[in-house]
## 1
Amino acid sequence: MVNPTRGVLYPARLPEFHRLPAPAAATELVAWFWIPEWDIERGRSSRQEIVAYPALNLVVDADAVTLSGATTRMTHRDLRGRGWAVGALLRPAAVAALIDDPSVLVDGERVLGESTAEVAELRGALVAAMGSGDGHRDRAVAAFARWLGERVGPVGDPARQANALMDVLMGEGAALTPEEAAARLAVSVRTLQRMTHRHVGLSPAAMIRRRRLQEAAVRVREHPDIDLASIAAELGYADHAHLTRDFQAVLGIAPRAYRSESSR
């Protein structure tokens, strides 16, 4: 599993937060499950700022089941009171069972209506698991994985190829360009573009830019001794100026300012 705080801009501000691996039967459907739990003092809030993975998430909380699309900008959520959520970072093989065209959800989300018995069943199972005491997170993940497995059904070769594109674009040692990714998958760049549009809703280039920015944020935050030019070169940016422009365009803050702010 990748760095557990990658994508989280200010990990020190997080409430209790866990990333759990998918059970063996669901590894083709879910990259990992993530579970925040919070208890915020009355009258206060905690803002969580995220540069999310370029993938879809299925999120369950006490009130709803929500399918969130890939994002192209920083997002935030203000936590208040007491609560929890259980999210599944979906692999491409799971997406088609939940939405026909993921591009319509880019930078958006859709609450899945509980008029369908299976959606109500999922929320009910997770509400029960999260309120069940010690081991509640493992039970919630197991119930979520079972539900997804039943919803998606057997995973065929086309879905496995779609999963492979996610590994090539987002995994460790990921490709730096669409051309490199296409070569690794032994497909044309055009085919790669169709695959990412069909399973994520973004272009390969947009996915690569998002991953690079996530990695850059981690390095800027966690390695104050490494200069920004070195980080830019390591991640395939043309130069330090390109890294700075990416930061400011998406995060609204320059890398040096982010480094200073995240150390507080």
Note: The CA atoms of residues 173 and 224 lie 22 Å apart.
## 2
Amino acid sequence: MRLLLVEDDDMIAETVLGAMRRAGYAIDWAADGRAAELSLGNGVYDLVLLDLGLPKKDGIDVLNAYRQSGGAAPVIILTARDAVDERIRGLDTGADDYLIKPFDLDELAARVRALSRRRTGQKQPVYAHGDLTLDPAAHEVTKNGAPLVLVPREFALLQALIEEPTRVFTKAELEEKLYGWGEEVGSNTIEVHVHSLRRKIGADQVVTVRGVGYRLKRC
């Protein structure tokens, strides 16, 4: 999943960005309403975390314009506006959830997971490939029925590969799936993640296509 955080407070933004990245999400950050509209116009986000009191354009106006343009990604409002009428206004404008500042980061992560499961109106599929299974909702991977412990980047890498097991992903495509704007990505970062993932799921499970990228082995 790729998230967009819209938040003008640098300290709050850095805290949320760090928490979501540790949870394995690629997340980008827009610091004002105009930047948010430009970002949302790309149509690449699976979920939006939206502050209301934004410079240049209020969050409610950003949300309204996004829904009016056909934007369908779930939106969680993150705001200090705790009046009931404000919450009603946000939900009526098209928000899917509402969290009052200050909020618990674990609760935010749980709400993100819950909305991601309901994104298509049904539970996310469990992916199976050979002796591997990956359950995005439960954030679990098994090999021959035995659970594997993957760190968030390893899990995100395996999910990208197992969702399209016949496709060869370039390094740039995998970097885009695993990292948000502004995150430092070393020249061999993907190779390091692939090496680490191979140690846990089997060296033959991830195939290197020389000069192109990576895919899962054919079953």
Note: The radius of gyration is 19 Å.
## 3
Amino acid sequence: MGASQTRTEHQYQSLADKTGFSLEQIKNLHQRFQHLSGNEEKISRENLDSIPALANNPIKKQIIEAFFDKRNQHQEEVGFFEEIGFEQFLMVMSHFRPPTLKMTEEEKQAMRKEKLRFLFNMHDTDNDGTITLDEYRKVVEELLSKSGAIDQEAAKAIADAAMLEVASTNVPHMGPDDFYEGITFEHFEQILKGLEMESRMHIRFLGVDTTTMRCGKSTS
């Protein structure tokens, strides 16, 4: 029993070093993971799809896919997993961790870039490094049309107009017949340059409010 507990503590410490979560937070998240998986070692899309709090979320599909996107594992791999284990689950959750008072400005900027990359990946569904009009249109359509306040054609028109505005900002000298390939990550950073989102990007649907997930003891 003692050896097993020590091994678990070593595993948790390794995960803490990789993600920035405290041991207590990792323990709490592991309990959530076990609940979702039914005490299995891995979870599938079906496990996340059954979460009641996600049922009416207009970007439910993108949120779920983000957990299985290899780009969100802080590695250079691309593609998608069929199932993920706890460490992979935790690596995705780490993108929602807010900055801490002890962080240097350089560390805060690095965290912001990771969060922006995570959001970019959610929109860049084909892993080609560009958010195309078609990809952007689908997200906007889902956000607007599923709210019931606007039909799909109107949502499409809004998406097209928004992308055209982005194009004129990023490529101001485009000719009338020029084709805008889409938003690169560098464009994406510029678009969101003035938005303070480091502490706003959090997640509650797992029963864990990540706005409280600061270094040290959890406040939840």
Note: Residues 124-193 form one domain.
